[in-house]
Write a structure and sequence with these properties.
The protein has 600 residues and is α/β, with parallel strands linked by helices. It folds into four domains: 8-230, P-loop containing nucleotide triphosphate hydrolases (Rossmann fold); 240-394, Rossmann fold; 397-450, no CATH class; 474-599, Alpha-Beta Plaits. Helix content is 36%, strand content 16%. It has 19 helices and 23 strands. The strands form four sheets. The chain has an eight-stranded mixed β-sheet with strand order 1-8-2-7-6-3-5-4, sandwiched between helices. Strands 11-12-10-13-14-9-15 form a seven-stranded parallel β-sheet. Helix 12 links the parallel strand 11 (292-295) and strand 12. The longest helix has 19 residues, at 396-414. Residues 1-7, 9-19, 462-476 and 558-600 have low confidence and may be disordered.
Length: 600
């Protein structure tokens, strides 16, 4: 948690509160204070020092702060401190607090933070509800009762429609990253949720920016809020060498293994986006001979501690982790951080690479960037005020040179072994009995231990590479395919609602969307053509409002006898949808956009 002297101020002229030295100076619940101590936090960050006092006093708050400034604790600490009956079981079973977050990843992070801060409050239950998770888990949690609900707007609306979520006695409502929620098309959902909550609830709204839509929302639903602004100083350490490699998604694993072979490193963290991704990548690295272990949120605490101790002692060299699992990780041995999956926000990037370059050492950070993720690279460079150095994919010659060098080093090391005399006698006897040269025997023994794949085969020339299956037309920044969803103009859907639902349920980003064309009873959406089965399955069950979208790839209209298609080639064909209709096309060719100009 940041303790830098960032400026926090109230726009209404009210001082942000007295100077706060430690959390002991804040009037928070003693059990929450103990949990904060367990986590290792000592000094409130500026947003916490400015926000906790008015929230503890029952006042509405508008906080303008970037991700990574400590805003989750800024609202979680006062909410937990003011829950009715927390810790003795006497409080109401209905939810007292609701936190709305734009994505399932953020919802999980916020729920986990509430769990850490309520560690000494065993009766407090925190329940995340988000798209992509089965309803069964969430329904059982709601039946048991939870004081704090953390959810994405779409799934919260679903539970309200089903009658499985009762927010009639809500006392606290938090809108986290409100500008992002509106950008993703959740404006109507957010307003409906606000309208269904009690008028006397306390509201905290956090946003990185204050566009007019957020200002109107605050004026309509918040009562005399105190506005607090924190300017984060996003910067990366000067002792970290930051590089990036432009590589397609399909070649990431090959690129990583080549990098591991040619780069000298002590210990390394490789960051991926999902829990499943940590297990898959760690297993693939182990199959290639690297000492790699996955660490994610599903890991038990005892196992996590054993894994970290192995990393510290040199028992393992590579940790494949998610952002959440790597929080608080402090191992001096870590010389390299690899962003296998590029983070969606700059603060995550700063936190990730901060795992290296510790204790005065120099560190190294490598970022993998696919062609359609260039905009995220530019955002990172702008926010950190540093230009990352582009490197090329290590060549076959580089890899083989390192393998030969390591082989020579292993010979030199084994020549000093105490057992050398015994094996020398065995080899001499074999050479004499079979009339074989010593060099041939050594080569045979090396072949047995390293097999015929010791050296990497050269890449085939461009003209001799296997022909690739024809893909959908490439847009600027990536390869897209057209998908069909079963909602259209008659369902009163908007492009923003489509983007919000698909991005939230499928874990996609703004750069993953191309054209969106809304027809009468269906819509066509351009998305990456390499969506995995898990994502496709989740998106088929996604709803916009009460309507399932049943997302599937669109292969165009039937062919005529002559083989020509009826109509033009989808939304890229001059506005026709390939089904004989002209509809509302959203987004321009070569310039994929998401929900408004801000997402260009």
């Amino acid at each position: 948690m940041s303790t830098s002297p960032d400026n926090a101020a109230s726009s209404d002229g009210t001082p942000p509160g007295p100077a706060v030295g430690t959390f002991d100076d804040l009037d928070i619940d003693s059990r929450v204070r103990s949990a904060i101590t367990d986590v290792g936090y000592e000094t409130p960050s500026p947003i916490q020092a400015a926000t906790i006092p008015p929230l503890m006093a029952g006042r509405d708050v508008v906080g303008l702060a970037q991700t990574g400034t400590g805003k989750t604790a800024a609202f979680a600490i006062p909410i937990l401190s003011r829950l009715e009956g927390a810790g003795d079981g006497s409080g109401p079973r209905k939810p007292q607090a609701l936190v709305l977050a734009p994505t399932r990843e953020l919802a999980l992070q916020v729920a986990e933070a509430f769990g850490r801060y309520s560690a000494h409050m065993p009766e407090v239950r925190v329940l995340p509800i988000y798209g992509g998770q089965s309803y069964g888990v969430q329904l059982s949690g709601l039946r048991r009762g939870a004081q704090v609900i953390v959810g994405t707007p779409g799934r919260v609306i679903d539970h309200l429609d089903r009658g499985t979520l009762d927010i009639s006695e809500l006392r606290f409502l938090v809108l986290d990253e409100a500008d992002e929620m509106l950008t993703m098309g959740f404006a109507e959902d957010v307003e409906r949720i606000l309208a269904e909550t009690p008028d006397d609830k306390q509201v905290a709204l956090f946003s990185a920016t204050m566009p007019s839509a957020i200002r109107r929302l605050a004026q309509r639903y918040l009562h005399d809020p105190q506005e607090i602004t924190v300017k984060a100083k996003t910067a990366t350490a000067q002792n970290i060498n930051q590089r990036y490699l432009q590589v397609s998604h399909q070649r990431k694993l090959d690129a990583l293994t080549r990098f591991l072979e040619v780069e000298t490193f002590d210990a390394m963290i490789v960051f991926v986006r999902t829990k499943q991704g940590t297990e898959e990548l760690a297993e693939k690295l182990r199959s290639r001979g690297f000492s790699a272990v996955a660490i994610n949120g599903d890991m038990a605490q005892a196992q996590r501690e054993r894994t970290i101790n192995q990393l510290k002692s040199g028992g393992i060299d590579i940790l494949v982790a998610t952002d959440v699992a790597a929080r608080g990780l402090d191992v001096d041995r870590i010389s390299h951080v690899v962003n296998f999956d590029i983070p969606h926000d700059t603060e995550s990037y700063v936190h990730r690479i901060g795992r290296t370059g510790r204790a005065g050492r120099s560190g190294n950070a490598l970022l993998f960037v696919s062609p359609r993720e260039r905009h995220l690279l530019r955002s990172i460079e702008r926010a950190t005020r540093q230009t990352l150095t582009e490197i090329g994919l290590p060549s076959v010659e580089d890899v083989n040179a390192q393998r030969v060098a390591r082989f020579a080093d292993s010979i030199t090391e084994n020549l000093a072994s105490d057992n050398l005399d015994m094996f020398r006698k065995l080899i001499e006897n074999y050479a004499q009995d079979n009339d074989v040269a010593m060099a041939d025997i050594a080569a045979a023994l090396a072949l047995e231990t390293r097999d015929g794949g010791f050296l990497m085969a050269p890449d085939p020339p461009e003209g001799e590479r296997p022909a690739r299956k024809e893909r959908a037309p490439r847009r600027s920044g990536g390869s897209f395919a057209t998908y069909r969803i079963a909602v259209g103009r008659k369902h009163k859907v908007s492009p923003g609602a489509i983007v919000g639902a698909i991005a939230n349920e499928g874990g996609l980003t703004r750069g993953d969307f191309g054209n969106i064309s809304i027809r009468d009873d269906f819509s066509l959406v351009e998305l990456p053509d390499d969506l995995d089965n898990e994502t496709l399955s989740a998106l088929r069950d996604t709803r916009i409002g009460k309507n399932p979208i049943d997302l599937r790839k669109d292969f165009g209209p039937p062919r005529t006898r002559g083989g020509a298609k009826r109509g033009a080639q989808g939304p890229r064909g001059g506005g026709r949808d390939g089904h004989g209709k002209r509809g509302d096309s959203w987004g321009k060719r070569g310039n994929p956009r998401v929900a408004g100009r801000r997402n260009g």
